[in-house]
Every structure is written in C-alpha cells, then in structure tokens.
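Hello,

Our lab assistant flagged a job as stuck in the queue for most of the afternoon. It eventually completed. Since we weren't sure the result was trustworthy after the delay, we are filing this so someone can double-check. Below is the sequence as submitted and the structure that was eventually returned. Let us know if re-running is recommended.
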Amino acid sequence: METDGGRRDGQGATLHAVSSAVLAVTRHLSVHEVLQVIVRAAARLLDARYAALGVPDDEGSFAEFVVAGVSDEQWERIGPLPRQHGMLAAMLKGDAPKRLSDIRREPEFEGWPVAHPVLKDFLGVPIRDGEDVLGIIFLANKRTPGGFTEDDEEVLTLFAAHAAIAMANARLYEHNRELTVVAERNRMARELHDAVAQKLFSLRLTARTASALAERDPARTVRELEQVERLAADALAELRAVIWELRPADLADGLVASLRKHVEVLDRAHEATVRLAADETVVLPEEHEAVAFRITQEALYNALRHARAETVEVRLAVEDGRALLEVADDGDGFDASDSDPQGGLGLASMRDRAYSIGGALTIDAAPGKGTTVRLEVPL
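-- returned structure --
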C-alpha cells in the first residue's frame, strides 16, 4: 500500500516535471518555437512516443501543425497538413480532454494517410484561452505499458493551461515586434523624404542657375552642372541606401551571403568604408539568422547615420561554442551608461531581439572612441 509520504513524493515529482516543462516553454518568444517546445515537453512529460499540436485556422484546416516523434522523411510521406475532420474535428468542437485506450476503435478514426504512424492509446487536451481554443495537444502510444491514465490527463491539462499563457505571450510579443517594424519603416520613409527631397530641391535650383548662365557665363555654367551631377549622385546614394533598408531580409542564401550583399551595398552608398570579415562555416537556425541580420542592420544604420564613422567592420565568428557577431565603428561613440543616447538608437529593440533567440547583446562605447555592438548566440 502506498503511504502518504510516497504519494506526496510522487506528486512533488510530477509538479517538478510540469514546472520544468513550463520553464522550457516560457524561455522562448517566437510562436513557432513555443509550439515546438510545447510538443517536445508534453511528449517527455508523459513518456509518449508521438506528440502533436494543431493550431486551427478559419478554413477547416490548421494554421500550424507541429509534431514530435516523426522524422522529416516520414512527415514528407504523410503529405499535406491534416484538415479538421474525424478525431481532430471532435477535439476542436468538444470542451473536454479525450483519453482512449485504442483510437483505432473510435468511429471518428478516419482519413489517416497510409504513411501515418500506427497509433493506439491516445490522449488529447485542448489549449484554451477563455472560450477560445488556441490549439490541441495530441499524445499517442505511451511507452510505459497500460496506456495513458487519469493522472496523465490531469497533468497534461495542467500543462496545457500554462501552454496557453506561453502561446498568448508569444503572439503578443510578435505583434509588438511587427508594430516596431512598422514604426521603423515609417521613420525610414520620413528620413528618405527629408534627405532626398532636400538634395533634389538643391539640384533643381542649381540646374536653373546653370540654365540662366548658359549664354553669358559658360565657365560658371560648367561648374554649376558639375554640382548638379554631384547632387544627383548623392540623392541616388541616399535613395538606394534607404530602399535597401526598407527591403525585407532575404536570407535564402544564408546569413553570411546576406551580410556580404548588405555590406557591399552600404559600402557603395556611403563615403565610409564598410567591410565584412566572416567565418563562412557559421550556420544558425533560420529565425536566429533573421534576428542576427536585423541587429546588424540596426547597428550599421547607427554607425553610418548617427556616429559619422569613417570605417565600419562587421565580424562573424565562432568562439567557445557560440556564434559571435560584432559591428565595430570608429565614429563619435556615446556614453554607454545613457539609456537613451542621441535620442534613441534602437538599443532596446536590439536587446529584445537578441533575448528572443536566447542570445545576449552588449554595447562597448565611449564618447569619441567609437562603438562595438556584440551579439552572442549559442550554437
């Protein structure tokens, strides 16, 4: 017979396991990463061979469907994302968890692809935010004999409640990040208008002056036309630089190739020398590369537009099991203890981006001594 002490020890171990799973989820801010961690954590928590999390859309299918225990090759053979039919539909419409000793005996068990793994014991729990179903966690084929128990259902229900908070938090974070991107694009558009419009206005006046002087002072006309050429070149450089910054990052060729293209464009568009020194072997997860690229863009923007740097170097290397990305300039620098230098350099945004991928951002700067922005990301 189990003693009260034994039951308390068992409950403590279960709560510790749930707590560890919840902490693993809440370390992440990307919605897709949160979904992946929820699935893996749920499978570990209840010792299930297969786990999945479906996020419903409004068109009878799933906006996302994340799995654990299925290889990429198996998933490719299974085919398109499942639609909301059979057991999936029953779970979406129901208000309660569903625990089955053999899902194959259920009338809702239908439409499974030939390449789908064979499922037997099953546990499904909705992830709810009030009346809304954010998703459903599905577990199948418990490794321990006997299938899923009532205690397992309670544990997964508790975990699902915390998963709902993590999903809502990640969605809110991504929404806020989108708003930040919109605000940044609007700022760039204003700068484009101010910088280019001013140069074009000067170009127009100079061209008029050259026209008026054409007949009576040819020598001065030549000088004015040379000025027109310089102003046009400056306006074109400004236009190219800002348009490039407005473009979404294309990382199809990887982080190093994308950084090289960006640095080459900025080097041509600005008087400052911009160069790249990169370890070609550095490869990061797709989301990490996107964040690293955006942070580099912001740091380069600050160096070229605010710091009046003459030389800017981007460095990417591997050091002690981490990817190390640095943007160093010889510009004006600033007091790094100032929380809002020069009216705001986007430092808080860069730190938030670094944190979102488990990285760390440090700023080494001093007035008159340049600035180094350093991003460290675990490999």
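-- support follow-up --
The delay was a queue issue, not a problem with the job. The result is valid. The chain is about 50% helix and 20% strand. The two ends are 49 Å apart (CA to CA).
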